[in-house]
Structures are given as C-alpha cells and as structure tokens.
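notes to self, project folder thing:

trying the whole complex as one job this time. last attempt i did each chain seperately and stitching them together was a nightmare. three parts in total, labels are on each line so i dont mix them up again. if this works i'll redo the older ones the same way
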Amino acid sequence: MSEYFFISLAAIVAIGVVAVLLLLSTILGPRNPNRAKLTPYECGIIPQEEAKGRYPVRFATLAMLFIIFDIEVVFMYPWAVSLGELKLFGLLEMVVFIAILGIAYIYIWGRGGLEWD
Amino acid sequence: MELLIFYPIGTLCVFLALGVVLNKSPIGSAMCLIGMMLGLAAVFAIQHAHFIAILQVIIYAGAIMVLFMFVIMLLNLKGDDTVWKTREGNTLLTGLGAVLVVGILYKMTEITGGGEFDSPTPIQETFGTTVKVGTTLFTDFVLPFEVASILLLAAMIGAVVLAKSKMDD
Amino acid sequence: MIDDIVHFFEPYIYLIVGGVKAIIIAVALTAVVPGLVWLERRLMGRFQVRLGPNRVGPFGLGQPISDSIKLLFKESIIQSSADKFLFHLAPAIVVFTAILSFAVIPITQPFEIFGQTIGPWIANIDSGILFIFAISGMGIYGKVIAGLSSNSKYSLMGGLRSSAQMISYELTLGIAALSIIVMTGSLNLVDMVKSQEAVPFILVQPLAFLLFFIAGVAETNRAPFDLPEAEQELVAGFHTEYTGMKFAMFFMGEYINMVTMSSLVTLLFLGGWNTYILPQNALTGFLAFAFKVLFLLCFFIWLRSTFPRIRYDRLMTFGWKFLLPIAIFNLLLTSALKVL
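result (full assembly):
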C-alpha cells in the first residue's frame, strides 16, 4: 500500500509540472488573434468543410482485435509469473489456450482482417 | 486510513459516473468514463487487489475505451446529434432509468441491510499479488480459463465477420 | 533546536524522502528534454554531413535553452472551432503519463545515506512493468484527444493513426516482455535487474530484445515508425493546430517516453545498473545505467537518420503479421525451455 502512496505522490508532482507548463504558456505568450489565425490549418487554403465525415471502419475493427488480444496477453502475465510452480501442466494449459486463439488468428488472416489497403 | 482514501475516491467516481450520463458531448462522456475506470482501479488498489487494479487500467481504461474513442472519431458525432432528441424519447428513457435505479437500490438494501456482516478475515500476505492470481487461476480455475479462450475465439471471429460483411457489400 | 526539528520530522521522513525523490525525477525528466533535442540535432547534423546547431553557446548548447524560452513566449493560438477544455487537456495528459510512468524505474541499486536506506525509485511496486505498460497506454488518449479537439483534418487523421499504431505494437511489446517475465518469475523491475547479475538477458534472449526494441520504437512514434507526424502527408499529425508551449509539451512527452523506453530496455535486457566489469556500488551503478540509456537514445537517433519512413499499411501488417507471431513463438520456446 505504501508503495502505491508514493505513486500518488509522483502523480501529484506530475500534475504540478503540467499545471506550471500550461499556466506559463497562458501567461507569458502575447495575445493578438485574427480571423485567419483562428481557422484550422489547411495548407493556406480556406477550409471548405469541417473535419467531419466518416473514417474507415478498419480502425474500429483493429481496436476490437486489440481488446481481444490484450485480454489474451493479460492472462499470460500471471501465468508467466507462476510458471515456475505450475511446471509442465502450466505450459500445456497455455499451449492449448494459444492454439485456440491461433485458430482465430489464422482465420482472421485468411479473411483478410489484418490487411490494410 | 483506508476509508479516508476511499471516501474521496468513491465520491469522485460517483460524480464521474454522473458525468458520463449527463455530459452533452460523447467525448466528454468517454473522458468521464475513463476517469471513473481509473478511480475504480484506485479502489481496487486500496483493497490490496493490486494486480486487478492494474488490469482495470490496462483492459478497461486502456483497451476498451480506445475502442469507444475510435467509434466516436469514426462517427464524428457532435453534441447535438443525440439519438433521443424527442420529448417522448426523453420521457421513456427517464422512466426506464428510474425503474433501474429503484431496482438496484432495492437489491442493495436487500444484500447489505438484511443481516449482520461477517467479521472481516485478515488477508494473507500473498493476497492480490500476481503470483497468487496465477497459481489460483491455473490450478483451481483451469476450465473457466480455457473456456474463456473459446469465448475470445468467438469474439474475434465475430468482430471480423461483422466488419468484413459490411465491407464486402 | 536541531534535535527538535529532526524529532518533529521523524514520522514524516518517508513522506519527505518520497516527495523529494518524486520532485527530483520530475525535474530531471523535464530538464533532460532540451538536452536530448540538442543531442539529436547535433548527431543528425553529423550523420548528414553538416554542422547542426553551433552558434549559441559552446557546441550550440545554448540553442535548446533559447528555443525553450522562445516557445514559452510564443502566442498560444486556439483556433475558434476547437474544444477549449479538451484542447488544453491533451498535452497535459501526454506529459502527465510520460512523467508518471517513470515512477517505478530503479535508476541504480539501493544506497544508504544518513543511516537511511534509500531506494533510487519513487515506488517499487510488485508489478512495476505492468504499471509502465498501463500508464503509457493512457498516453494514447492525449493523442486521440488532440486529434479530436483540434477540429482539423490533419489532426484527426494523425490522432487516429497514432493510436492505431500504438495499440498494435503494445501487444508485441507485452509479449516480448513476457519472455523475460517467464525467465525471472517476477513483474518487479528490481527483481529483473537482480536476476541479470551474472549475464544480461540480451545474450540469452536476443530475439525478445529485437522484438521489444522495434515495438518500443513504434510505441514512442519515432522514425522509421513516425507516421502520426509524417510531415509530407499530415503536416504535423495530431499536433498540427498546437503552438508555443503546448506544442512543446507534445515533444516533451515524446522525448520523456523515449527515455522511459530506453530505461525499460536497459532494465529488461542490458542488466540495468549492473556494471559487470567495474566495481559495483550505487554511483557506478547509476553511471552504468545512464550510459546504457544514453547509448540506446543515440541508437534511436541513429535509426531515425538511417531508415526511410515505412508506409502505413506495411507498418500495420508488419506489426500484426510478422512481429506478433514471432513474439508468441519466442514466448512458447522460452517457457518450454524453462519447464523442460
């Protein structure tokens, strides 16, 4: 618990650094805005539309795959730490686990879920 | 001492949870949700469940909320694009929410108000450490662990099938 | 009198020591950024057969300082359609997570001072490496929010790309680290260094080292994986709309992340504070650690000036189709060797 207390100390200090930096940038800088400055940058061309519109669904699929793989990896941390006690049985468990997810991985690869074009 | 830390964090969590519901912009809601996940992680850390606390940050605040953020970015919803704009919709949602709150409160009083609490058992030295989680998960709970892999398999295939079938059209 | 003061502060000694350590680390990390910028510009100059900054002060050392002062006095432009609160929040998250994730890194062995044993870390938690992964994972939101709140096409695309890249390589990073966790049986960074007293893990696990380092370069968005900031296509990626100090804060975050990543590689693979040949104490330990980190930082810069930027689709398929299976294979091989 006490070690986590030190982490909260570090967090407080980090918040302090961030606050000082943001504050300095607000106080010290000059302030003379004009219309051209306040429009979004578009290589000197006047923006035609807002940055709306839809973006490839690929990114969302990727995020879903990431969640699933991340959960898989998270299962591996306690396994890796206690492998010394689990011995061969633990290894076989993880082999089965990875094999099952390997099927999904190969399926996704075959379906083109990992392509990026 | 633990209560002294718990109450501010708990209050913060409740307010952030309210923020998720009441915030007008989807990004604001998502930010509140991330904050609440981090608060929950702190609560877990107070309960000596250190490994779970970090998992809470990695999985919920780190992975699942990234998906939420992506969906927000992809749809690019603005604050006024809410689905339930109509008065009837609002009334319906409020009613449903009220029923839910009453139900939860009833269940909570039933659990906590009914009987006496057991006296807390002193926690062991190894409680909540990664080693303990590992040995328990991989000896006593082998079957749930392997079943979880099949669940993940289904989820992965589902994600790709849904995304791909949309794309092939 | 002095005794009274000492007596008064005695119960709070841990608090004071912890606070002082946290402040030292935070200030050192903030101060090291201009130095790194200087180092990068000088080295890049050498690599490209030109001089690099050499006008302000000896060896151009005054350049980064005057640059940071200049950035402080620049106007901070917030374009009118941006979300003000989130616009400020984004650089804050980037710097905050960068500084916080350094909290669990041990920079040398524990030493004694005034009869107090002091651990050269802010916190020595049970699952230190997971803490770093968790907190640096939070750094993604800084980039996502910068992209979302700027209301600019380049920013949005940059934020999207950056986060997609970071989550893809996080997996490889985790699995490569798992090989080391299997070998040491601990998630604690101090334990990991201690188990390398005889031989650094880079010699035992060269493949894991390569995977971890490549994924680390991608995680910190450094060249050749600096697609979120690809100037030719995205202007400056997610921080296109940022000016002055807020712009500099993104750079601070990037450079601090670079230092953290180099430290992590040092702790996991290069033996941390183990000197191997020199006599081992806290000072030589720190020097060994600092030297290794500096070497890796120069390696980062070397990579930048050697490799052209990789194409985005290749970057993603490289992570998912190449690094990920190899990392899993390496993990299974390592654990099989450990158990059998």
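what i see at first glance: The first helix of chain C runs from residue 2 to 9.
need to look closer tmrw
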